[in-house]
Amino acid sequence: MSDRRWRPGETVVERFHRPDGSIGQVHPLRVLEDDGRVLLAWLPAGTPIVGSRLADGRLMRDAPLDQRFRIPRVPVPDSWHGASTLRRIPEDEWSSVWWFFDLDGRFKNWYVNLEIPLGRTPGAVDRIDGVLDVVVERDGSWRWDDEDEAEAAIEVGRLTLEQFDRLRAEGERIGALAERGAYPFDGTDTEFRPDPGWPLPELPPELSPRSGEGSAPARR
Fold first, then answer.
1. Per-residue pLDDT for 212 more than 90?
2. What is the mean pLDDT of residues 33-37?
3. Cα separation of 213 and 216, whole Å?
4. Which residues form the DUF402 domain (predicted)?
5. What is the reported pLDDT for 209?
6. Across the strands, what pairs with 76?
7. Staple 72 to which of 30, 31, 55, 111, CB 3.0 to 4.6 Å?
8. What is the pLDDT of residues 140-184, one digit of tens each?
9. Which residues contact 75 (CB under 8 A, 6 or more apart)?
10. Is 135 strand, coil or helix?
11. Contacts of residue 98, Cβ cutoff 8 Å, sequence gap at least 6
């Protein structure tokens, strides 16, 4: 458990590091609960984020699979779009669970981002995106996501086989929870509604697109 805790209402950023130590995407989150081990936070649609593109200007999804992890990436300003997310980010687990809500506030499903935890800094929770992910539907059924990207990432050394094995084991653990309808897939927080008076979380000034610095999408 970390001795660094954040108070409800504070803004903290989730930073996705790359294996070479550089930082990719940065997402500002509004803190709902934090006990030093598990952070529960909110990222609404429309929030400005730091995203990334390939250095040649393409989005990751626009590049052939064999190029996606070979071409350098650059930060670009963007916003979180498509759905709002409630995120449960545990310090000692290789995953974070994202509740997806549509633009009308209705719960859609869970997306489990498999990640390598790196601890906390004063204003951030730091992770390495594990590329492989898990999608959990409302009925508890689940499936792997981005398996092909994970294989491509291993080929170029973006992930080691040892890391991949642990990430896959974490996905299996998550899938077993989903099949049992166990927390966090038991309906908890599926009726969550943010305070309508909350402003969008903001990036730190040095990362804000308004400052001329910052970043945009390509999930990693």
1. no
2. 96
3. 11
4. 61-182
5. 53
6. 51
7. 55
8. 999 999 999 999 999 999 999 999 999 999 999 999 999 999 999
9. 24, 50, 51, 52, 213, 214, 215, 216
10. strand
11. 85, 86, 87, 88, 110, 111, 112, 113
Q: How many of the other CB atoms lie within 10 Å of CB of 173?
A: 14
pLDDT per position as a tens digit, 84-123: 999 999 999 999 999 999 999 999 999 999 999 999 999 9
Between helix 161-180 and helix 147-155 the angle, nearest 10°, is 160
Asked if 105 contacts 99 with a C-beta cutoff of 8 angstroms, the reply is no
Tell me which amino acid residue 184 is. Answer: P
Q: Which two tokens stand for residue 27?
A: 């997402």
* Element housing 201 (H / E): none
Tell me phi and psi for residue 20, to 5 degrees.
Answer: -80, 0
